Amino acid sequence: MQELFIDNAEQLQDFVHRAADSDWLAVDTEFLRERTYFPKLCLIQVANGEIAAAIDPIALNDLSPLRDLLMNPAIEKVFHAARQDMEIFLNEWQVLPQPLFDTQPAAALLGLGDQVGYGKLIQQVLKTELPKDHSRTDWSRRPLDKAQLRYALDDVIYLGQAYRKMKSQLEQAGRLTWLDAEFRTLTSPQTYSLEPMDMWKKVKGRQHIKGIKLAILQALAAWREEQALAKNLPRCWILKDDVLLEIARRSPKNTQELERVRGVDAGFVRKNGDAILELIEKARQLPKEQLPRDKRPASRPTPRQEATLDLLGAALRLIAVEAGLSPQVIASRKDLLALLNREDNCALLRGWRKSLAGEPLQELVEGKRQVVVEQGTAKFQAP
User: What letter would DSSP give residue 181?
Assistant: First the structure.
C-alpha cells in the first residue's frame, strides 16, 4: 500500500483525484481538546485499501478538495466510534460525510462486545496487536516523526481491513441493515446540536436538588455553555460542576454571599457577579409549572417491579443466546425499566433492538408471551 504525508495543495489534489473512484474510505482524525471548547483538528487520515494518506490541516489552508471527497454520496465512509470525528467535520465544514459505516456498533452486532475500543477490535477481527505508544501525543506539534505517522496511518489501514471483513460477516448473518437507523442518526446534524438550556442535564449531582434550585442550576449551566462557546474554552474552565451545584444550593442574593461559595474567587465575582445574581433572581421568579424536572425515576423500583425486571432480564438473555449476542449489547436493566414504565424514547423500541428484543419483551409484559421451563431448560415462547 502506498503511504503519503500530505502538506501542500498539489499533493492533496492528486490524492483526491486518485481516491475519487473508491467504493469506501476509512477515515480517522487526530485532535486536541484539553484547552478549547471546540476540538482543534491536527491530522486527517484516509485510506482506501491501495493508498493511505495522513493529511495535515495545520499546513493546508484549503481542505475543500478533501471535503468534497468525503461528502461524495457514492463512497461509503468508514469510522470507528464516529461521533467525535463527525462533530469535528461539522464544526469545520458545517456538513457531515455520508453514507457512513461505524465499526463500533457493527462490532456489537457481531458479538465482539459493546463500545469496544479500536485496538481490541483489531485484535479480535484481524488478530493484530497495535501499539499504544502515541495515544497521548500532542498532534499539533510539527514535524511529526516516523513513529507518529506510522501510528496514525495504521489507524485507517487496519480499519479498512476490519471493515471489509465485518461487513461480509454482517451480510452473511443478515444483519447489515440493522444499523441503518443508527448510522442515519450519526450523519444527522441535529445529533450534535447543543441547546444551552438543556446542559443542566449533564451536571453531575443534579439529582440532589429540585424546584427553584434546579431552575437556578439550569440557568447557570446555560450561561456557562454560552460563555465556553463564545470564548472557545472548556466548560470547566468557566465554572466546574461542583461549583455550579453549590451556587444553586446556596442561591446567593448578593456578591458577598456569592464570594463565600467555595470555588468562586473575587476576580470571577468582579467580572461575572452581576450576571450570575441576575440569573439567580430570574430563576426565583419562575412559576411552578416552568420549573425544570429531572425525568429520571425519583424512587427505586418496587419489589414487584424488581421481580418483573428479573423476568425481563431472563427473557432478554434467552433472546441474546439465540442471536449470538451479549445481553448488555441489546439492553441494560435501565432500558428494561424504561420499557416496563412505557417511557418515551425507550432505546429498546428503536432501530434493530425493537424487532429483536423490544417487541417480544413488550409482548411478555402484556401477557402475549411467556418464559417456561421444560426439562430443566428455560424457553421464551408464545403461550
Answer: H
